[in-house]
Amino acid sequence: MGLSLRRRLCLLLLLCLVVAMLTFLLNPSTVNKQKQDSVRSVQKSKIKRVTGHRRRESLHPKETPVQRPLYTWDNCTDLLQRNQSAVDLSESSTALSHVDHLHVAAASCVQYTQYWQWDSSSGMDTQDFPIAYIIVVHKNAAQVELLLHSIYTPYNIYCIHVDKRSPSAFRAALSAMAGCYDNVFISHRLESVVYGGYSRLKADFNCLQDLADSPVKWRYVINLAGQDFPLKTQNEIVAQLKVFGGQNDIPGVQSSSDIHGDRTRFVHDVVTNDGEMSVVQTEKRKSPPPHNLTIYTGIAYYIASHAFMSWVLTDKVAKDLLEWSQDTYSPDEFYWATLNKLPAAPGGFSKPTWSSTIRAIKWVYFEGKQYPPCQGKYVRDVCVFGIGDLQWLIDCHHLFANKFDLNFDPVVLQCLQELLKLRGERPYDTRFTVKDFPRKDIPWLLL
């Protein structure tokens, strides 16, 4: 009997233990906690996955974490189908409150390139039509990283010019990122870039000279800023460049404005006030442009053929104009446009035109006239796009757009990134194709 009683007591205790464990495991709060722990584990493993070639093992220095783009096109189409004026910054910020944080390069090159795996569907055409990119940057490594991997293919070549005055953590992060790829590099000569100064043009030239020595036989070079973002896939960009047929996309007109005229009529100096460098106009008159050149006003950004850039690097007129421009204001906005009008310029176009495929931009001066109002904010009279600008950006024929700010409204960047991915995967899906693209109605293509 004694033994039987002990057995009964043991069975009773075992039964109580089983009941207690089942009660704990079936408790909703316990189940939710287990799910959360599981999600965190998956997220951590994703953060460790980081595309392209392995170049060498290196640890990436950490920078200020930024929320990582993890939006889906379903969310983006939902935003597009609603009243755009109702989509504001607070909604964009809330949409990202639950996602991972992106630490710019907190892993080895193997992990990093595995994470940013190249999508061949969006850039395979660059194998036979490589493009050179010049990217001039000074801040926000996470956004530069997003830009690079949105235009990356292993067949292109990328030169990044990092401002000498940028924080050391930013420069180290960009160097580590470039070090993981055979076709991405930091320019060998860096400038302290001053807004409106010759240093901005020199930054392009430094990269251009590096690219001239590259073994990659690139067809065109495109220069970008860190706050640009593509509106077309790499295959679509190649399709547009093939239509160019060796012509340059460098807009420019003769300026009738005294403001623009003063940029080249007077000597300008770089001054420093309270640690800030700026370009100021002096009362000293400049000598006339060399070789009796007519100065054309354009923009700092271009799509130029290899033949044109090779000519720029070696031609005496181009060299003399570069020398003459050093004490002017914003020479990057007239140098390329002026040279492109010369009869000797390969792929040039002599007639004045602003028509271009380079980049979509909203200036405050033309709001409501040439395009709908900015749905983000204005910085230096240029719209920093918000999610409400998404449909306008999608409908643009341009290859790139400016400006974006990952810290201001990240969702518009995420939706564009997701759209490019879908267009790369489904090039014949009419829901995602671009109307009237590639463009063939540009004036300098109708000769």
Automatic annotation (TrEMBL):
Database matches in Pfam families: Branch (PF02485)
Broad class of the protein's primary localization: membrane
Localization, UniProt: Membrane
Pathway: Protein modification; protein glycosylation
Taxonomic superkingdom: Eukaryota
Keyword Transmembrane helix among record annotations: yes
Membrane-spanning segments: none
Keywords from the UniProt entry: Glycoprotein, Glycosyltransferase, Membrane, Signal, Signal-anchor, Transferase, Transmembrane, Transmembrane helix
The keyword Glycoprotein appears for this protein: yes
Signal peptide: 1-20
GO molecular function annotation: acetylglucosaminyltransferase activity
Record membrane topology: Single-pass type II membrane protein
Any single Gene Ontology cellular-component annotation: membrane
Compositionally biased region (Basic residues): 43-57
Disordered as annotated region, ranges: 35-63
Family the entry assigns: Belongs to the glycosyltransferase 14 family.
Protein name: N-acetyllactosaminide beta-1,6-N-acetylglucosaminyl-transferase-like isoform X2
